[in-house]
Amino acid sequence: MKYVNANHVLPEELIKEIQKYVQGETVYIPKPKRNHQKWGSNSGSRQLIDDRNTKIKNSFKNGNAIDQLADEFFLSIETIKKIVY
Asked: For residue 30, what are the CA distances in angstroms to 27, 33, 36, 76?
């Protein structure tokens, strides 16, 4: 997260209003809910995990055992159970 000097991006009137509540502090201003993205959507990690989980589900449907899938995908048995059930 990068920090931006309020003097460079906010109108002077707004800065004066904010200074009534906080001065010389770091204030986090969150994104609006509509701009939030799910974890991994930018990096592609979410898609990789979704693809892996689909492979696990298909392998399970094709008769592979849970412990076999855990070994193959380097996950715990409990994690495999969460994915397939």
From this structure: 10, 9, 9, 36
